[in-house]
From TrEMBL:
This is Uncharacterized protein. WD repeats lie at residues 165-206, 208-239, 253-284, 298-327. It comes from Lithospermum erythrorhizon (Purple gromwell). Keywords: Repeat, WD repeat. The keyword Ion transport does not apply. The lineage of its organism: Eukaryota, Viridiplantae, Streptophyta, Embryophyta, Tracheophyta.
Length: 387
């Protein structure tokens, strides 16, 4: 088990509003001044950094650069007891970082740098002690064997090298679930998108050369619209028009000057956020999947955007400039409420949720979890006034 230590620390004020490209920044100094924030815990690891995280009810999961997956109890971070170690941790097979985590009912999907996707069962006893058990590694052995025996299932992945189409051949960078959780989507630096059936873990479809460079992010809307962001400076939009058809490209969002590292959808899915290598967050207004309009760009980070997370009307962004910024729209324009400073390395992953331990009518409280390449995970409490 990795030893962890816990401590509290304070963060510094942002004191600035967003510079919204093509629009004047929103003037709401009272909103910024009345936003309160503090770091309530810092968890340190001597051996690995947190490379991915996901919330699930009263728990959350983290994946690390040394291939370890940990389960934490969220309530302990909000109590005086603190939390110095995970509730449960487990070292996955293979080598490299856990690039992405995804929770579906009693299962957790993990995407790995070793090109694999692993599926785990989460078992809870009456005392809520947790245990992981490995179910399957994707692609399944039966899938691999059947495809290997048929020559037409082999595709060229680079010059003079072939693999079956069910295989990812580079780091699996991101995962997403369909609204009914019947399908799981994976994207990879190998430039492909693969679609998996979650009841038997069969690979149903592979979109080869979906982008011209590594695919870094994927998000899916309730109606099944799939957005992928890539280092090729493009966002592509995919749609499956019926149960019998395969996914097809319906739109390409061009005009970016830098690669895309992260994507997120607003809670009502009316807006798409894309985080770029130049430190900008582009805001897209969605009228339908083939008609995306740029609303503006949130400019405040000095280096690449590495991760985005959304809760209610808050947008959180983590950057290689070592900060987490909190953005909020007011009458269509965005303000940067606060910049959370305290990490000594790039912020690699984020998760955000409502803090139900501090309910008030006049304010909303949020807990923000940030993992950094400084081998620390911080838990922040941000309290913002309600409109």
């Amino acid at each position: 088990m990795i030893p962890w230590s816990s401590q509290s620390c304070e963060s510094s004020d942002c004191g600035q509003e967003s510079n919204l490209q093509h629009y004047q920044p929103n003037s709401s100094p009272s909103l910024i001044l009345n936003t309160q924030h503090q770091c309530i815990a810092t968890l340190k690891s001597p051996n690995a950094y947190i490379s991915s995280m996901v919330l699930s009810g009263k728990f959350f999961f983290t994946g690390s650069s040394d291939n370890e997956i940990c389960l934490w109890c969220r309530d302990l971070f909000s109590s005086e007891l603190g939390q110095e170690s995970p509730v449960y941790n487990m070292c996955a097979p293979g080598k490299g970082a856990v690039k992405c985590l995804l929770v579906s009912s009693d299962k957790i999907f993990s995407a790995h740098q070793d090109h694999k996707i692993r599926v785990w069962r989460i078992d809870m006893d009456e005392t809520e002690n947790a245990k992981f058990s490995h179910l399957v590694t994707l692609p399944k052995l039966s899938d691999r064997a059947m495809k290997f025996l048929v020559p037409k299932n082999h595709v060229e992945i680079r010059r003079h090298k072939k693999a079956t189409w069910v295989h990812h051949v580079d780091s699996v960078s991101s995962l997403a679930l369909s609204n009914d959780e019947s399908l799981m989507y994976s994207v990879s630096w190998d430039r492909t998108i693969k679609i998996w059936r979650t009841n038997d873990f069969k690979c149903l479809e592979s979109i080869s050369k979906a982008h011209d460079d590594a695919i870094n992010a994927i998000v899916i809307t309730i109606d099944g619209c799939v957005y992928t962001g890539s280092a090729d400076k493009k966002i592509k939009v995919w749609k499956k028009h019926s149960e019998e058809t395969k996914h097809c490209l319906v739109a390409t969002l061009n005009g970016h000057s830098f690669g895309i590292n992260a994507l997120a959808l607003s809670t009502d899915e009316s807006q798409l956020y894309s985080g770029h290598s130049d430190g900008a967050i582009v805001v897209w207004g969605r009228s339908n999947y083939s008609n995306m309009v740029v609303s503006g760009a949130l400019l405040g980070h000095r280096k690449s955007i590495l991760c985005l997370a959304v809760a209610n009307d808050l947008l959180c962004s983590g950057s290689a400039d070592k900060t987490v910024k909190i953005w909020r729209p007011l009458e269509g324009l965005y303000s940067c409420l606060v910049s959370l400073e305290g990490h000594n390395g790039p912020v690699k992953c984020l998760a955000v949720t409502n803090d139900h331990h501090k309910p008030k009518d006049s304010v909303s409280s949020y807990l923000i979890y940030s993992g950094s390449l400084d081998y620390e995970m911080k838990v922040w409490q941000v309290v913002v006034p309600n409109f």
